[in-house]
Amino acid sequence: MLQHATLTIRATPGTLKPRPGQSSVNQLIGGPETLLRWLETQLGLPVASNHIASRITEFAAALDTLPDATFSTSLKNDRWETASELLTRYDELLLAAWDLTVSDFLPAVVNDLAHAVNGRTFAFPGIATRLRRVLDALDTGQVLPSHRCLLHDAPDRWPVLWQKVLSKLTVVEPPASVPLALADSALHVAQTVVRGGETREIEQDSTFRYVHTRSQSSAVEFIAAVLAAAPDSLSKSVLCCEDNELAMRLDACLSRLGLPTTGALAWSKAHPVLQVLPLTLALCWEPVDPQALLDFLTLPVMPLAPRAAYKLATALSEEPGLGSSRWNETLEALCDAENDPDGKLRERLDAWLECDRAPRGGEISSRLIRTRCGMVAQWASGRAALLANEGVPQLEMIAALQAAAGHASLLGELAESQGTTLSEPQLARLLEEALAEGVEATPHNEAEGGPIRVRSLAEINGPCDRLIWLGLGTSDASACRWSASHIRQLREAGIEIDDGSNALSALRAAEARGFSLVSDAFLAVLLPQDLDKRWHPIWLAIRGLLPPSDLEQPLVFEDLVERNEGNLLAPFTFTCNDADIELPQKPRPLWSIPAGLLRVRESVSATELSDRLGCPLKWTLNYQAKLRPSSIAELPGDFQLKGTFCHSVLERVFGEGGDLPSVDEAVTRVATVFDERLPLDAAPLAQPDKYADRQRLRRELENATRVLVGALNSGGYRIVGIEVELSGHAFDKSLTGSIDCLAQRDDGEEAIIDFKYGGRSKYYSLIEGGKAIQLATYAYGRSTDGGAFPAIAYLVLSDGLLYTPSGSPLQGDNNRSVINGPAIQTVWQSFVDAIATAEDWLTSNAPVPARPLQDAKDWPAGTTIVLDGKLRPDSWQEVCKYCDYKRICGIQETL
Amino acid sequence: MRTLEVVRAGAGSGKTTDLCRTVADAVERGLDPARILATTFTKKAAAELKGRIQAALLTQQDGQAEAHQHADRLELAAIGTVHSVAHQLLSRYAIEMGLSPRLEVITEIVAEDALDHLLGAIPLDDWQPFAECAQRLGVDDLQHRVLALLAAKRGNLISDDDFATQMASSADRVCELLAPDGPSSDDASASQLYELTDRAIDDITALSNDKTKITSDAVQKLRRLRSQRLPLWGSYLEATKINAGRKSGADELLHALRHHASSVCMNPALHADIREFLSRLAQQTIRLESQYRKYKAERGLVDYTDLETLLLDLLRAESLAAQLSEDFDLILVDEFQDTNPLQLAIFESLRQLSPRSRWVGDPKQAIYGFRDTDPELVDDIWRNSKDAVRSDLPNNHRSQRGLVQLVGKLFEPIFGADAKQEPQREAMPRGVERWLFRAKNQADDAMSLACGIAKLHEEGIRFGDIAVLARTNRQLPQIADAFDTLGVPYLFESCGLLSTREGAIVLAGLRLVADRTDSLAAAMVMHLQGDPDQDTPDWLIERLHTLLEDQDADESDERRLPWQDDSRLARIECINQTILAPTFVTQQVIEALDVPALVQKWGDPARRCSNLDSIMQHAREYEELAFDEGRAATLNGLILYLEGLEHDEADTRYPPQGHDAVTLMTYHAAKGLEWPVVVLCGLHSDRGANMWIPVVSGGGQDDAGPLDGRVLRSWTWPFGETDGPYGGLRKGSGLDDSALNSPEGQERSVRENAENLRLLYVGCTRAKQKLVFAHRDGNCPWLNQLTNADSLVNPALDEGEHALEGIDTTYVLRHLNADMVDDCRFAAKQQQRWLTFAEATTPSEFIDRFHSPSQSGTTSEEAEFEIEELPGPSHFPTNANEDHYAAIGDAIHSYLAALPSIASLSDSEKQAVAERCLSAFSVSGLLSPGILVSTGERFFQWVEKQYPGAQWHVETAANGPRAAGGHWTGTIDLVLQLQNGGVVVIDHKSAPIRRQYCAAKAGQFAGQLDAYSEILAACGETIESTWIHFPLAGVVARYLAAQHE
Questions:
Q1: Rg of the Cα trace of chain B?
Q2: For residue B494, what pLDDT is reported?
């Protein structure tokens, strides 16, 4: 016979899942929302779901009507948050049966609220309104079906309006909660004490174990081991873990071990799909932040074709700016007639990447924001629909896309509701609000036969054999938003506001009831971070009865493993074994690689030659094994960006070669190009907070231009070209590379100037020590056409220094720039000699050396041209400085 | 009556116990625990305090219900750091104060970033002359200076005008110290130095008779000077130090230069630079403050200083005083001695509002003078508070008797009788040791120290019971290195997380998830998992072979993924980065690469597991930082962030406490902690006063508030620092000596000295059983500031154990040196014990636990339905499209659910119910209430006729086991309980559909009906029939298959 509806209700909010393995019909269990929903369903009082943001928007409009209220300043400072806060207070007041009466004895803010909302009807109802509707429906003659409402918390612990509703129900006192553990067991004592029962010392036994772990990771491994060791108890075990992320880690571990998972889930704002909206909006501000653009283009899920996005991202990471030369070239190539015959790609790229933009620091049109949000919503829902029609729909991705579409629509509405324009911070606030919930991620399912995971003891709603409580600390309870004085005033006016006490008592009672449902065994696991939190009050009550020795010298999981004393935690046992410890990978100065595995290369560059001499292993890993890091798109660092940009400006000004302009004219041209190109080619420097930086860079480049033109003029040179391809052969291979600046005199004598943004000490030393092998290679390359070795120099742009060896026809600012160093022919010859004596490994089966790991005395003669024989212990060889393989060769230790 | 209780509580005297007792007694006398406000120094201390007070309350009335109520009420109390308490109070009163209630607290990192951005946006016309002036003075940390001054200004509520005036005074004072008689009247230009340098270079290089090294070096120095790589005024000092060969006359050629340079202190241009610099510094600081204020206001943000300032505003607001006074009946302040001036003003104000305040602290442990606190100011306020009830906690519950006595005697000359405590613990032998190192450098010191630790361990002391305290963080890595050499385990919050095998492999795994073509990452995974004993790792040969094969096969390099189809990477390939946040990807990578299992063979799994926690923490921090700064959080971003941390040596390994390992930390960090054995090192440190950082002092005199009369002094060192990691002030001007000898310098020295001694006291009082003074023999100036140190623990005695007169413990003297390494080295463990798991064969697929009947998805083509048409027409909502169907369905369902409740209502009342059902889902215009009422009526009548007297159960919750595995959970639209005990199940389908299609449509829901039947059967119900009801069509379809069953 079907029972009448049985509603088991407590004052603590939250829904409860049914108990697996149990059958029930017409039985509901939960909190106030469960009861209210049931009432509304039975009485035909449906409430469509709505986002809290809609209520806040509506409420804010009401507050706006009262310009001189207690909250007006606050509202002006932060309309959204103030309305949100006051709405919460308003809801609390209504639940306390406040009838909008204004009185001198009430707090001013309450009276102001009454004035603001009086006579208004809100489209989106709060709890109080819904309760009133229930009461009205019952008053008009609607009847509820026969039911029993087992109320865990006495009606007087509920808000007044609830009390009125409860009085209309058949309320029954639920049976008292009885501890299920064996009488006299430690667990039984603990279950008794948690709500004020008997107090006696808890002596740990097989029903109650308490253990510390020294890390979350080991705790997760430990719990998984305990669960794995008792497969029969798995489905009857409850895991209480407040921390969603930790529960997810446990699931990942269970999955690795082939065990059923708990379906732990978490909401995250960092879900890849959710990044589309903020990044789309970030592109609405001028100048466009290239980092935001890059992030957008590299999202794993996004509205643009991956190939196009990848190419644009690559262009951006080379020359960061929307509209840089690289960007435009890439765009043109992507959208040419062959690749994009119908122009659809171009249209899509334009739609997403080009839009009306507002200047940073100014206001943006709400309509524009709404349009952009609409695009995101349309894309997300369209993509979700497409995925839904696939053979095996990706349910999680579909749900995320749908959520993203919802967030975008909501933000669009919110933006328009705020007026015609928005500032950047205002938009950021609304965005934060729209995305606040994040998206649910459940990497592993809630599997049949797996342990049940609860976030709180209050979620345990049926008997279970074992409880593992992972993490015994908890965060602080929410503070009361009303002052004691306000609560008193309200109480005196007959309005009872809960300062949090009733809510806490209900919660603790529910937790205690949940705890009492454990029958066999309880394991309390303390995590390291619990020590930074307050004890969970239920644990605190239990803990107080543990003998001092258990608290001062608790069992520690890691020690138990070490000492093979896992049995002390029985029945929560686990198995261990001993394994040999493996040492870390050692530094290997010599690598046995058959020469036959090394392929012959057709060309050679200065860098390659230098690497091959300095560290043959590096050369092998790079040029032979082709071990390359992924091209994770990244904007160039500050130093690199400035260098590249300065190069490109000089190339634009002097790239055509020809006669040199006067110094002043050259500086003017450089400054003009600098200003034109900076927002396009070096957009990070065009951001508002880089004002000083870009001005400084401009001055540096102007200064360097003066030095460059001055030096060339005084030497009688004219520029042949900038970024001139290197020609010639060396070591039977063609030379590759490009010369930053090639200049020539009327007599045909050439000069090579290599631009460096910074590093004046380094380049000074290279010239001085006869180690400028890059310049030597370039110079040699130029000389193979039959000419003489050209003059060489480094131009250090940031300092406006032109370093050249003494005797060079190039002249900088005399005392600062001319360096005593060998001629470049000598440098090249030393380099050639060194290579000639150091490459037997390349052609024989001799081991491939990692020279920086070798003793300097084992280096072939001449290699000190690229290696420092007297390196300080805490320094790297030059060849190692930007080497990706330091952990592989072992020069960088991996512990 | 407002009571202030001032309690002096020495180390280990039971401050927390006192506070707990205070609360428990007050509660017993009727205090509402929710009306307590308590502040402590750290979140951890606050959590502990709250827990202990709650525990104390729970023991009242033998833990009965009332005690639990008190404990529950305490959860509502404001207990935390000053900042968290401020946040709680400000949130409550934000609206009355006209603030945004958001009060989003930004971390120091985010605040610094915001300030950096604001600084970067300062127009160059303002910044450039400032920067150039700074460059001449050798100030290369302008931003840092501005921020430090801003903090000092805000933290002491110094007005803009006062600030500018005090900065100008600082400039005047530095000039006065440089040249007591004022600058010279010569109008020498700054370029004169370079002109003289050029001349000297030319003259000396023209000498052909001098090839000496001294002259050659002199030319190098001159060139360096001329390169303008040194700050202008620092160059003057350098110029005075250049010497060349005398014999050749080269040195003589330097006279003019040296002469000019030596009068730098009186150079009027230098004086002008100092004044200009400090004036511009003041301007920029004031400007920045105003911009920062605006920035935060626009975003509803507050930083820590704002929290304090705003709280003070709140407490001083007359209009809110009455309200506030009702909030708290008891104010508790722990660690009062570490209160900053703003906090001091806060506590003073709170004291005026609450009936009882209790400030507990130990002036002897005030060690944060270098940060924001002013111990003198605190002490002054504390000592001179009017009407305060003063008491002491005289006992020491922490340390053994002998140590309490020893520390009392050591510090008696400094603190007087206050240094002495009443020991409460038993005496133990060998309570104090002195380790004398025979060493020549710091590395040897560290190694000697490590040998001492090894000896303690040999004598039976656990590593985990030992802490080594160093003076600065910079000293700790060297000690850690020495410990590594000996194999002494230690806990030390240090960088290097990504240098561990677990760190490196997780980072490589993340890179592979982001881009499976990353051959370097793949190689790194192979390398770390490979055999370390191989001469050449197999993976490299494999790779070269593969590439050669590809080349031979004329394939492009990109065609094959690195280590394609390799089982070692198979699980990494399954991670779907498109649906996971970066932190979740990190979790998955850890598992996919089996790192929690690898830790066993890598050794020390407990510590490696902590490292995995640290990786996760960095990943979380990345996401938080990204959101705080309004950026996207992506996997690529996380990878770059981790690499950035490694580059910046910020890839911290957070060590949890509790490992059996020696704790390494600074004296400052040890505050509030205790260990059985404490080794004090860094005793050679003898820090003088630094006169060149901003200092605020004064205030609180003669009944004035603590913030009244605060004066900032910001002296600028004008000559720059020398190069290198240990660079110091460039010498040669005499300015530093003048500063130190000035009245301000004298005062500062006294303060620094006092603070150093308090810091030493903190170190000495951390030990419970044994205290060790460890230092190089004869080099311990810091310890020697305790005038009786050598007489009490005599370093001249023979090695071994000695009695101590009047002290109930013995003294052990050891001589240690780095040569003892071989004797002290611990053998590395060969084997590691850790968890074993049965090998998971293949990833198991488990069925979901919960299943919804409505999504059972069964489309039974064989299901048979018997159609019965209800009277009246079929209805089709006008102008509705597919987008509306779900809402229409919801409206119809809610009305049908309400049918039993409205049975006795009039037609118009039913219409009203129908209308609200439709409007709730915004479909009023698509379907009339009348249609809803009529469809309800005909269905109601059909039920009455078909199942007379049946009891309706609408929207019935139903749960039960599922035969195919798992558990059904759902809601049945309608269950009719028949008089014969059987039940009928009816499910409403609201699709607008023609009657002839209803049978086919119903077939789609046979699975759902089967599920309901399964649940009801499991509950022991007899199912008479199951139906699909099409209300708009006016059809009921009886499921025949169910009947067959």
A1: 40
A2: 87
- Is the model's pLDDT at B944 over the cut of 90? yes
- B218 Cβ neighbours under 8 A, 6+ residues apart: B204, B242, B243, B244, B245, B250, B254
B803 & B862 share domain: no
Same domain, B876 and B1019: yes
Give me the pLDDT at residue B840, please. 61
Alpha helices, DSSP H, located in B535-683: 538-552, 570-573, 582-592, 595-602, 605-628, 635-647
Q: B144 lies in a domain?
A: no
Residue A229 touches chain B, beta carbons under 8 Å: no
CATH number at residue B970: 3.90.320.10
Same domain, B501 and B479: no
Interior angle at CA B306, CA B377 and CA B150, nearest 5: 70
Q: Does one domain contain both B479 and B519?
A: no
Q: At B372, list the tokens.
A: 């924001």
One-letter amino acid at A864 equals: T
CA B812 from chain center: how many Å?
41
User: What token pair was written down for A557?
Assistant: 């999981």
- Whether B528 is in a domain gets the answer yes
- Identity of the residue in A45, A575, A691 whose CB atom sits nearest the CB atom of B836: A575
Which residues between 707 and 736 in chain A have a beta carbon less than 8 angstroms from any beta carbon of chain B? none
Q: How confident is the model at residue B1044 (pLDDT cuts 50, 70, 90)?
A: very low
B860 and B796 housed in the same domain? no
Residue B331 belongs to a domain with what CATH number?
A: 3.40.50.300
- Window 853-892 of B, Cβ < 8 Å to A: 887, 890-891
Contact check, Cβ <8 Å, A449/B846: yes
pLDDT attached to residue B1042: 45
Say how many domains are in chain B.
5
Residue B881 or B472, more confident: B472
Query: Given CB atoms, is B963 within the 8 Å cutoff of chain A?
Result: no
Regarding whether B798 and B945 lie in a shared domain, the answer is no
Across the interface, do B584 and A73 touch by the CB < 8 Å criterion?
A: no
Alpha-carbon distances of B618 from A299, A696, B645, B648, rounded to whole Å: 21, 34, 9, 14
Answer yes or no: is pLDDT of B1 > 70.
no
Residues B630 and B667 in one domain: no
Q: What per-residue confidence (pLDDT) applies to A642?
A: 95
pLDDT single digits (tens) B527-571 = 999 999 999 999 999 999 999 888 766 555 456 889 998 999 999
Range(s) of the domain holding residue B523: 497-647
Does the residue B485 lie in any domain?
yes
A576-596 mean pLDDT: 93
Determine, yes or no, domain membership for B940: yes
CA A234, A240, A244: angle at the middle one, nearest 5?
110
Write down the pTM of the prediction: 0.90
What SS3 string covers A268-333? Answer: ECCCHHHHHHHHHHHCCEECCCHHHHHHHHCCCCCCCCHHHHHHHHHHHHHCCCCCCHHHHHHHHH
Residue A240 vs residues A191, A252, A451, A566: alpha-carbon distances, Å: 16, 17, 10, 22
Question: Tokens 């705020």 — which residue?
Answer: A418
Residues 6+ apart with CB under 8 A from B165: none
Q: Residue B635: pLDDT band by 50, 70, 90 thresholds?
A: very high
With an 8 Å Cβ cutoff, is B96 touching chain A?
Answer: yes
Among B222, B234, B155, which residue's Cα sits nearest to residue B194? Answer: B222
Chain B contact present for A552, CB below 8 A: no
Q: Does B69 touch chain A (CB under 8 A)?
A: yes
User: Alpha-carbon Rg of chain A, whole angstroms?
Assistant: 37
Contact A220 B596 (CB under 8 A): yes
Residue B634 and residue B779 in one domain: no
Tokens matching residue B478: 């060297």
Give the distance from residue A465's alpha carbon to the nearest chain B alpha carbon, in angstroms. Answer: 18
